[in-house]
Amino acid sequence: MIPRKLPPLPPIRDLIRVYGLSADQKFSQNFILDKNVTDTIAHHAKISVKDDLVVEVGPGPGLLTRSILDAGARRVVVVEKDPRFLPTLQQLAEASDHRLGILMGDMLKLDHAHILKAGSALHSRPTDISSAQPSIPAAAGNSNNANDPDPNLQREQDQQQEEDFWRPMDDCNSTIRLLGNLPFGVASPLLIQWLKMMALRQGIFGADNRVSMTLMFQKEVAEGIVAPPSHPQRSRLSVMAQALCNVKMAYKLPSGVFVPKPKVDAAVVHFEKKAEPLVPGSLEKLEDVARFYFNKRRKTVGHNTNRMAKAAPEVKPILDEWVAEGGWDMNLRSQDVSTEQFCALARKLDRAQLKIPLT
Ligand SMILES: C[S@@+](CC[C@H](N)C(=O)[O-])C[C@H]1O[C@@H](n2cnc3c(N)ncnc32)[C@H](O)[C@@H]1O
């Protein structure tokens, strides 16, 4: 898929130089320097030539970026905070035939309009298509082997692939894939920010874009995000993520694949935005409800519901209605409540325009 050979990965000593550290000092970040691992992450992200835009956050030295390009992505925008990685990323961009754009900045603060603009600026169809570098694999040659594909069918498939490859970015109906191996302290706040933006259809989550996210977390956090009802690791984040996305544990990585080796293992979660979210509009009410019930997660649903009714008496009729409709066993724990049930309460509170206490 790669039109030109990408430059070799800088050896680890160069990486140390990039970070301005001597070999015996500790890195402040944990990198993946095994291409098999980054290829597997790109595979789980389902990268294909049909995607309109791939956004990678925190590419560092760019090994996952290479895997994304190798998987055939037509437009990749990377957002990196640390300017010391710029030369390495620029080298990669130059070899990518206008498929890679670089934005330097903090993803938590970046206006998504810059990402979409950088994506649209990449890789536009040349006026004379015959002079374009073939960026997709050449058609299989003539062959008499009975197992070879029908040449007419192959030609049609190649033509379709060529069309897919040059398709311009659609402003309102794009397939966008987000990937990132970020420091663990940044991954969760960024996920919450993205979920809130997704609920409000803002930024890259706007219009009718189909969005998937393939993100690395500390293993326990990842297990929490995908935890179904009654799972001991179920949390506020499980409820918020599952209200908007179909989530799947994609890939568990032992700490040994990172350089330097961190103290904890990691895991990649794949999120596919649901066509119909379980809560319409803002996630605020659902976040408040989940926070309230998970703040005292060892207490029963009955205890937490009474606690809420006591702290905000105006909410009591709504809670009574919710309990009656759900046929609640009040001895259940917060972790046993399904995402749909928490969403039902959030919708009722939203309709009644009632706020719940933040305790
Ligand atoms: C753990 S390293 C991973 C690098 C690379 N993706 C890998 O897997 O080897 C995290 C990278 O994210 C970058 N980063 C951290 N916070 C960021 C933020 N808020 N916005 C953009 N990049 C960030 C760091 O500079 C670093 O390059």
Index terms:
single chain; about 350 residues; alpha/beta; Rossmann fold; Helicase, Ruva Protein, domain 3; 3 domains; seven-stranded mixed sheet; two-stranded antiparallel sheet; about 40% helix; globular; binds S-adenosylmethionine
Structure description:
The chain folds into three domains: 12-124 and 169-273, Vaccinia Virus protein VP39 (Rossmann fold); 129-165, no CATH class; 284-351, Helicase, Ruva Protein, domain 3, CATH 1.10.8. It has helices at residues 12-18, 35-44, 63-70, 86-94, 112-121, 151-166, 184-199, 219-226, 236-244, 284-295, 301-311, 316-326, 339-351; strands spanning 31-32, 53-57, 76-80, 100-104, 175-180, 210-218, 245-253, 258-259, 266-273. The radius of gyration is 24 Å and the shape is globular. Helix content is 39%, strand content 14%. The chain has 13 helices and nine strands. A seven-stranded mixed sheet has the order 4-3-2-5-6-9-7, sandwiched between helices. It binds S-adenosylmethionine. S-adenosylmethionine binds next to strand 1, helix 3 and strand 3.
Summarize the structure.
The chain folds into 3 domains: 218 residues, 3-Layer(aba) Sandwich (Rossmann fold); 37 residues, no CATH class; 68 residues, Helicase, Ruva Protein, domain 3. Helices cover 39% and strands 14% of the residues.
